[in-house]
User: Fold this.
Amino acid sequence: METCESTAVINILSVDDHPLMRQGIASVIESQSDMRLVGTAASGSEALEVFRRLQPDITLMDIQMPDLNGIDATIAIRKEFPHAKIIILTTYEGDVRALRAVKAGASGYLLKSMLRKDMLDTVRQVYGGRRCIPPEIAMEMIAPAGGDTLSKREVEVLKLVADGKSNKRIALNLDISEDTVKAHVKNILTKLTANDRTHAAVLALQRGIIELNCSALGARS
Assistant:
């Protein structure tokens, strides 16, 4: 079996909506004799198009991007190319995002703060057929931070809290009483060990429990 120690060159696709991040990744890859950056993309939909054309050995995929996020792009790519090897890149350790990425078929999960230290090793291991999930993230997937998981209704309430809605407005939107909303908010604060509503929203966004729909926000402003 051919390994990364042979003369094979690992062809890599870099997907990130920030030009500086793509440049940084490119500079690291270009310094390696066994790696070659064959393409870049700035969104999930562009990543799918470029992948179809280049079919790289490894794709470095940012999670948070406009148009189509990295997890949905991973699902779309692996639907067409089941053996695609994709490493998810993200700013946060968010256990929920990690779990979604793994379920989407990601072969690796890498924090952007760890790129210079761990990216090359992760690329080589994934290319060699291994899955690379950092221990601290794997532990969070087993035992999510904050203890109890949120119910479906609590997530709905939390999304509206993050959207700046008052308890009264949340009650109207979900067709429940304001007292019920207050009870849900109390449970959310306890489960996330948050200090207040704003803190709960920030924690949920960081962990990937909720995501703000920027286009929807713009339409309401």
Notes: Residues 1-5, 214-221 have pLDDT under 50 and may be disordered. The radius of gyration is 20 Å. The longest strand covers residues 35-41. Residues 151 and 188 are 9 Å apart (CA to CA).
